[in-house]
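Changelog-linked ticket: BJW example.
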Amino acid sequence: MIQPDASIVILTGAGMSAESGVPTFRGVDGLWEGHRIEDVASPGGFARDPDLVHRFYNLRRAALNHVEPNAGHLALARLESEWRGRFLLVTQNVDDLHERAGSEKLIHMHGELRKARCEGCGAVMSWTQDLASGTRCRACGEIGGMRPHIVWFGEFPFEMDVILAALKRADLFLCIGTSGVVYPAAGFAQIAAERPNCHLIEMNLESTAISRQFHEHIVGPAAIELPKLVERLLAKR
Ligand code: BJW
């Protein structure tokens, strides 16, 4: 039974944006131009072939101009604005569809496509154009240090302290559209489950590597199932 002032933590993955037309990582063949995601999205991959990695992110950044939030994104923004209790939305996605839908209490734990960072001076800046090895940093003016503001394999996800604190006081943990194979996000359900009476719901098209940790499974597309779930939660007010 979810109380109307319950503390909610939501984790979203690539399945959240699938119905907006953003491809998932591990669907069908799980490759991008023949490369495994682990090879492209890593500091080693960037050092080996920066032009390849820039191209991967440039294409995905440009593609954001042609997608829109779906009914699932809009439902989560509505839940945040109408929920009386604490609320935190954590996304592994690097698209900006949650914020375009109106979500505000939002953490991009794996970074953001529309931001770039200078490895020289550390400045993080909004970035909607292509990046290249020769791109000049707008903050320090140096060339050669610019990279996507993305968390690659082996790097530390953002705002983990805030996320862990929220998980430890969560009454409801809702996990949407993630395959549950990438850590530390794949371990969030286990952390939430340690809190007595925390209810865990997984929403996905299929069972995942972490499904057995959840009390409730909603099987179906997020854009269809989330508006129904949000209606159910808000009906308790
Ligand atoms: C739908 C749907 C619809 C489809 N509706 N559902 C060995 C063991 C354990 C861990 C490790 C290990 N070796 C290395 C590690 C650590 C490593 C890791 O986990 N590797 C695994 C591959 C084994 N992790 C890291 O390196 C992380 N850092 C780290 O651990 O630092 C140390 C640390 C320790 C402790 C605490 C804190 C830190 C960094 C991970 C960075 C991940 N980066 C990426 C790429 C960058 C972003 C980008 O380019 O976009 O992030 S990888 C990629 O996977 C991306 C995603 O965010 C992430 C998760 O993918 P996601 O979202 O689950 O997508 P899919 O495609 O896998 O699944 C989609 C799901 O949706 C499917 O289930 C579908 O069924 C479903 N679906 N349509 C509902 N309509």
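Closing comment: Example verified and attached. The CA atoms of residues 57 and 92 lie 15 Å apart. The domain at 8-22+68-110+157-234 is CATH 3.40.50.1220 (Rossmann fold).
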